[in-house]
Amino acid sequence: MNIHDSEKIAGMLKSLNYEETETKEEADIIVFNTCCIRESAEQKIMAKIGDIKALKKIKKDLIVVVCGCMTQQKNMKENLKKKFPFINIIIGTHNIEELRNYILSLSAKKKTILDVWDKEKEIREDIKPYRTSKFNAWVNIMYGCNNFCTYCIVPYVRGRERSRQVCDIVEEVKTLVESGNYKTITLLGQNVNSYGLDFHDGKTNFVYLLNELCKIKGDFKIKFMTSHPKDFSPELIDFIASNDKMSKSIHLPVQSGSNEILKRMNRRYTVEKYKSLVDQIYKKIPGATLTTDMIVGFPGESDDDFKKTCDLIEYCKYIGVFGFVYSKRKGTPAEKFENQVPINVKRERITKLFEIQHRISNEILQSMINKKVEVLIEDESELYFIAKTDSGKTVRINKDKDHKLGDICSVVIKKILSKQLVGEIV
Ligand code: SF4
User: Fold this and answer.
1) Of 154, 224, 254, best ligand 1 pocket probe by most atoms within 8 Å of the beta carbon
2) Which residues of 112-123 are buried (b: 16+ CB within 10 A; e: fewer)?
3) 370 CB contacts (<8 Å, ≥6 apart)?
4) How far is residue 71's CA from residue 93's CA, in Å, rounded to a whole number?
5) Measuring CA to CA, which residue among 217, 218, 208, 280 is closest to residue 250?
């Protein structure tokens, strides 16, 4: 989400004739688009803002902006202002679109603009993002989250779910595809598979949106993130299975393999339900690959709970796992939970989790040898193209004059070299 917010901010700055600089010393404006999902991210950003103090003393006209979900936390804007009085603009996630106007009014006012809205507002469609990613375009389809997982700050700082209109999303994707620059469109939302439910029209949902997007002519794939297992419908599985434009690589965050922990996390599904969903995906979607998020050391997680997490990883055969050590997040219910797990235990568990996943990922890579896969050529060196499979695995292929960056082609995987797939174009 933050990547795309940053692209919107860059779009606003471009419209004010700002250009990217190589170093912060050359900049006339520095924007910190913050994230508060993890406390460590917040500490890092605080240190980075502090680093600007000396520069601001020399460069008095430098404009410093702090925005993003960190500012939405209780008392944060006041704390930031007190700690870093040199900040010129502090705004939140709900009024990020106002940044352009704030910058314009700043020189006239010459004092700090501190404006963080508590409430979500209407989605604005008039901000043109400045896209920085090659071949992949991020497209927000909704904002906010209604789920209140007990470890997560998002619903408190990004508000309730609000979906963009189908016509606006279709128009944006159509323009991106027609530009010829993008081969992958990644739809973004905290829980994309509850898209459209806030319209209460009995018609609009995530599959309806996907169906409209897949009607757009062109050679492109649709990915999405993130989906919540409790809302992953059989209709969605069937749609992905039956439509060539849909990527078969699915990110399905599970967070734990223990029902007791899932309950404490307020995830609202059981391990049995999740496994049955995974079974359906593998059965109905040929070539499907799965990735997940896993939290270890959640309060109350016993050795037995962790063993269940390891068992689930073995069962699901993920191609990749994003593993995180639980850390207290201020303002969330889990912050006050008893039985916090000692840090040395958390470290041991995450190491074990990565060992298991490393072995499984290797087995999956080995099983790809001599198989034909479709890849997108994303980069090149003097001798090789660097391509990505649908599931995001890197494949090195010999360069030839018939292919170029941005091409989608079929390769046969020949071997694995230094953990990288090596393929030949066929
Ligand atoms: S669904 Fe995702 S964004 Fe929403 S509360 Fe849970 S973890 Fe946070």
Assistant:
1) 154
2) bbbebeeebeee
3) 412, 413, 414
4) 8
5) 280
Return the sign of the alpha-carbon dihedral for residues 43, 39, 292, 205. negative
Q: Are 127 and 120 in contact (CB under 8 A)?
A: no
Residues 266, 295: contact at Cβ < 8 Å?
A: no
Q: Select from 170, 166, 120, 118 the least CA-distant residue to 146.
A: 120
Contact in structure between 193 and 227 (CB atoms under 8 Å): yes
Contact of 50 with 85, CB cutoff 8 Å: no
Model-level pTM? 0.88
Is the Cβ atom of 190 under 6 angstroms away from ligand 1?
A: yes
Provide the residue-wise pLDDT of the chain in tens; the chain has 426 residues: 677 788 889 999 999 999 999 999 999 999 999 887 777 778 889 999 999 999 999 998 899 999 988 888 888 888 898 999 999 999 888 788 889 888 988 865 566 777 776 666 677 777 888 888 889 999 999 999 999 999 999 998 888 999 999 999 999 999 999 999 999 999 999 999 999 999 999 999 999 999 999 999 999 999 999 999 999 999 999 999 999 999 999 999 999 999 999 999 999 999 999 999 999 999 999 999 999 999 999 999 999 999 999 999 999 999 999 999 999 888 899 999 999 999 999 999 999 999 999 999 999 999 999 999 999 999 999 899 999 999 999 999 999 889 999 999 999 999 998 888 999 999
CA distance 225 to 251: 7
Q: Are strands 394-398 and 420-425 parallel, antiparallel or unpaired?
A: parallel
d(CA 258, CA 200): 34
224 φ/ψ angles, rounded to the nearest 5 degrees: -150, 150
CA distances from 318 to 67, 234, 285, 310, 321 (A): 35, 20, 15, 12, 7
Atom of ligand 1 at shortest range from CA of 228: 1
**Ligand 1 centre from 279 Cα, in Å?**
23
Q: Which of 121, 120, 199, 128 is nearest to 166 (CA)?
A: 199
Chain mean position to CA 347: 24
What DSSP line would sit under 370-415, residue for residue? T-EEEEEEEEE-SSEEEEEETT--EEEEE--TT--TT-EEEEEEEE
CA 119 to ligand 1 center in whole angstroms: 18
Query: How far apart, in Å, are the Cα atoms of 310 and each of 27, 85, 135, 339, 348?
Result: 47, 48, 35, 21, 13
The β-bridge relationship of strands 135-140 and 182-188 is parallel
Whether ligand 1 lies within 6 angstroms of the CB of 271 is answered as: no
